[in-house]
């Protein structure tokens, strides 16, 4: 997707993808990654997700990446904390106790810039990207996080009835991108009540990805 697409979504407040409550897939299944309190969790394409509030409340440290600086500003407003802002070669970094969010192109981030990552929570990144970008994204994500364990939430539906985002990401793609590097466990496969965006039948899938020994 072009960057202007997402900037326009935030500038016009067309953010139906923003959930007002914690994602049930996160609260039910994140513990399966077996990360101790204080672990650094990377949240790619994080927006201003409420899920960050939950991760912080549970004692995790959050490292986010988000294209829209407007979304990042709104995130910290809702966290009711005043971040320090630093300009770097990777873009602006917003930092407050327990949280650091990078603004700009996620593909410009490096492992050195984000530091050690203990786990990844991908609710809105993989499904936001068209199939032409997903291989590049998954390879980049593994590279900058040293193949950290992941909780990944995806949708499956017939894109003949509706196109994304969020896009349909079938199990075969998860296996293609990640099976060589992770043990895959699908921990949820359930119907999206009311359909995706109220337009078509869909299923929500939650995956735990644990690095192979």
TrEMBL record:
E.C. designation(s): 2.1.1.67
Record's subcellular location: Cytoplasm
Alphabetized UniProt keyword annotations: Cytoplasm, Methyltransferase, S-adenosyl-L-methionine, Transferase
Record: residues binding S-adenosyl-L-methionine: 10, 45, 66, 123
Xref: SUPFAM superfamilies: S-adenosyl-L-methionine-dependent methyltransferases
Catalytic activity of the protein: S-adenosyl-L-methionine + a thiopurine = S-adenosyl-L-homocysteine + a thiopurine S-methylether
Gene3D superfamilies assigned to the protein according to its UniProt record, in alphabetical order: Vaccinia Virus protein VP39
Biological process annotations from GO: methylation; response to metal ion
Domain of life: Bacteria
Gene Ontology cellular component list: cytoplasm
One Gene Ontology MF term: thiopurine S-methyltransferase activity
Primary residence: cytoplasm
Pfam families cross-referenced by the UniProt entry: TPMT (PF05724)
Family, as annotated: Belongs to the class I-like SAM-binding methyltransferase superfamily. TPMT family.
Protein name: Thiopurine S-methyltransferase
Organism this protein belongs to: Salinimonas iocasae
Gene from which this protein is expressed: tmpT
């Amino acid at each position: 997707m072009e960057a202007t697409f997402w900037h326009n979504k935030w500038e016009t407040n067309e953010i139906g993808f923003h959930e007002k409550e914690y994602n049930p897939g996160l609260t039910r299944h994140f513990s399966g990654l077996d990360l101790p309190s204080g672990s650094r969790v990377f949240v790619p394409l994080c927006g201003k997700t409420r899920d960050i509030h939950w991760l912080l409340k549970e004692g995790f440290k959050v490292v986010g990446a988000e294209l829209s600086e407007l979304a990042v500003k709104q995130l910290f407003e809702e966290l009711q904390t005043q971040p320090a802002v630093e300009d770097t070669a990777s873009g602006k970094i917003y930092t407050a106790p327990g949280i650091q969010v990078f603004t700009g192109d996620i593909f410009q981030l490096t492992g050195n810039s984000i530091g050690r990552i203990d786990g990844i929570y991908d609710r809105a990144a993989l499904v936001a990207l068209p199939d032409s970008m997903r291989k590049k994204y998954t390879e980049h994500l593994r590279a900058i996080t040293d193949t950290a364990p992941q909780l990944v939430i995806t949708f499956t539906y017939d894109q003949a009835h509706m196109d994304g985002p969020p896009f349909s990401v079938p199990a075969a793609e998860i296996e293609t991108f990640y099976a060589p590097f992770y043990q895959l466990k699908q921990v949820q496969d359930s119907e999206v009540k009311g359909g995706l965006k109220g337009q078509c039948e869909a299923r929500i899938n939650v995956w735990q990805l644990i690095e192979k020994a």
